[in-house]
Backbone:
């Protein structure tokens, strides 16, 4: 079922599009890149592929219209990560999505925000995928990411390949980097976005799958499965402001506008 939603965080009301297929095993929250929105054709394409595999999706605007009009806000990684954390709290408390395994799909600067959130203690993130991302903007936090992380980069996006290789070395979780031959930063070349969608879907299907009945794996209680700090919308995720802000901004320069 698809529906328009509005999520209220501590300082904003964020519009989004939620799709929950029947029997969904997990949900993927999209963190868009600079200048993009919940209507991004690339992320919408990936979302539809995930939905066809039984995974719920949430495409959300992390900035209000007024905030997005100020160009520097699009590169405020701290703000994007804080908003993303607020949306996570909504997911784990909303009846329709509560209890679903959670994945993050970040594009460009959104990937840095996703990784910062995935580095928070006791966060509920089970898997992360970055598309043409800038994980280097979260470099100081990458060693704290516990969720399996897939970095997807275009084969012709040479500078971003180098940045992702550096980030890959800093990740201590299960990780992989995939280079899509012939693709530039936006994956506009024929067949390249399809490859991104396939890689992302395989990653999320693998790590968002719930244990089968009778598998012998212990079941988590609801309290154990959902960290307390993500249940209360009045709470911010506990963060290390100095580390996060320094890591997000040190050496930053936008390479792409979208």
Residues:
């Amino acid at each position: 079922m698809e529906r328009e939603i509005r999520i209220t965080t501590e300082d904003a009301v964020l519009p989004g599009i939620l799709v929950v297929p029947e029997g969904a095993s997990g949900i993927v929250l999209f963190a868009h890149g600079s200048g993009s929105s919940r209507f991004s054709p690339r992320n919408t394409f990936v979302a539809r592929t995930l939905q066809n595999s039984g995974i719920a999706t949430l495409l959300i605007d992390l900035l209000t219209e007024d905030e997005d009009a100020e160009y520097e806000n699009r590169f405020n990684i701290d703000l994007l990560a804080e908003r993303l954390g607020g949306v996570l709290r909504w997911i784990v408390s909303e009846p329709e999505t509560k209890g679903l395994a959670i994945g993050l799909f970040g594009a460009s600067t959104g990937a840095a925000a996703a990784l910062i959130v995935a580095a928070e203690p006791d966060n509920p993130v089970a898997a992360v995928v970055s598309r043409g991302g800038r994980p280097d903007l979260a470099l100081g936090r990458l060693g704290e990411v516990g969720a399996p992380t897939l970095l997807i980069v275009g084969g012709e996006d040479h500078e971003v390949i180098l940045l992702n290789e550096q980030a890959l070395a800093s990740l201590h979780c299960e990780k992989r980097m995939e280079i899509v031959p012939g693709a530039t930063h936006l994956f506009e070349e024929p067949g390249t976005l399809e490859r991104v969608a396939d890689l992302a879907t395989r990653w999320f299907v693998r790590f968002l799958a719930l244990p089968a009945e009778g598998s012998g794996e212990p079941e988590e209680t609801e309290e154990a499965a959902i960290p307390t700090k993500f249940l209360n919308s009045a709470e911010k995720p506990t963060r290390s402001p100095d580390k996060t802000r320094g890591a997000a901004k040190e050496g930053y320069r936008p390479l792409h506008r979208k």
In short: Strands lie at 2-8, 13-19, 26-31, 55-60, 101-107, 125-131, 149-154, 175-180. The helical segments are 41-52, 65-69, 77-93, 109-118, 158-170, 192-208, 222-225, 241-249. The first strand starts at residue 2 and ends at 8.
